[in-house]
Design goal:
The chain has eleven helices and nine strands. The protein is of the alpha+beta class and 271 residues long.
Length: 271
């Protein structure tokens, strides 16, 4: 696969981006065992090369995603660990070509190891989110799902299982959260992992947010590139971390006042 795709302009750089970010996810402790997944819509970069690539027989996707027809996605493999993606991305990433009006996908995979890797078990959710992004002409091309410790811990506290409350707290902890995640995070109450209900609820949140927090499960973010999606989660996680540091020290986090947050909003032209 490396030999094939290194010949496509822009792909080596994208693989390096994915490698770097999956390394961060592992180092942060947000990717235990095979937790988490990542996908990248590379259609704009690689579409002209599709006809020259060797794909396998189409596999039905279960649901139609018509806006993804003829799109090309990089997707981490099911059961793959983020540390393995970091060490050898070419052997732990699948390349999918969406076909048949978005009802099926063809997989390209010639890993150097010779071991076939299937796409993430949460492929349906990734496809549904990319479908929404393309349908709405959104700039985001990357989806990252991971398990940030402190954000998950917040969702075990009933007070913060509320979108307004958790956002007001996260914004108040540090200015960066208010500035860079100005629309807040979308909170999704607990739903079965990998279910259509979880995918639908997440899509609903991502129409207005770039980060969705799944109760007692993890976090998902979208971005124009892997670094942007990672940064959003990293910023929100930093606020949650500071909040718990204060609690661990026996203090209640005072937080930035509403007056100061309003001044920050005006200074940075936050809508």
């Amino acid at each position: 696969m490396k030999t094939y795709f290194n010949n496509i302009a822009g792909i080596p750089e994208i693989i390096e981006e994915i490698k770097k970010v999956t390394g961060f996810l592992w180092e942060k402790g947000w990717a235990e065992r095979n937790a988490g997944n990542l996908s990248y819509n590379i259609t704009d970069i690689a579409q002209e090369y599709i006809e020259f690539l060797d794909f396998e027989t189409p596999v039905k996707s279960g649901k139609p995603f018509p806006n993804l027809d003829n799109n090309l996605l990089l997707v981490t493999g099911t059961g793959t660990r983020m540390r393995d993606v970091f060490k050898n991305p070419y052997n732990n990433i699948c390349i999918l070509h969406i076909v048949e009006n978005g009802t099926a996908y063809r997989q390209f995979q010639k890993p150097e190891s010779g071991i076939k890797i299937l796409p993430t078990s949460e492929l349906s959710s990734h496809l549904a989110i990319h479908e929404m992004l393309v349908a709405n002409n959104r700039e985001e091309k990357v989806i990252i799902h991971t398990h940030p410790n402190n954000l998950i811990a917040l969702t075990h506290i009933r007070e913060f299982c509320d979108e307004d409350r958790i956002n007001n707290m996260l914004w108040s902890i540090q200015p960066e959260t208010r500035v860079f995640i100005h629309e807040g995070i979308g909170f999704v109450h607990y739903l079965q992992t990998g279910s259509d209900d979880l995918a639908d609820a997440t899509i609903g949140k991502l129409k207005k947010h770039r980060v969705a927090l799944w109760e007692k499960h993890g976090c998902l973010a979208i971005g124009k590139n892997p670094a942007e999606a990672f940064d959003l989660i990293d910023i929100a996680e930093k606020s949650a971390d500071i909040f718990f540091i204060c609690k661990s020290a026996g203090y209640k986090a005072e937080g930035i006042s509403k007056k100061n947050l309003d001044e920050l909003q005006q200074a940075f032209n936050i809508e």
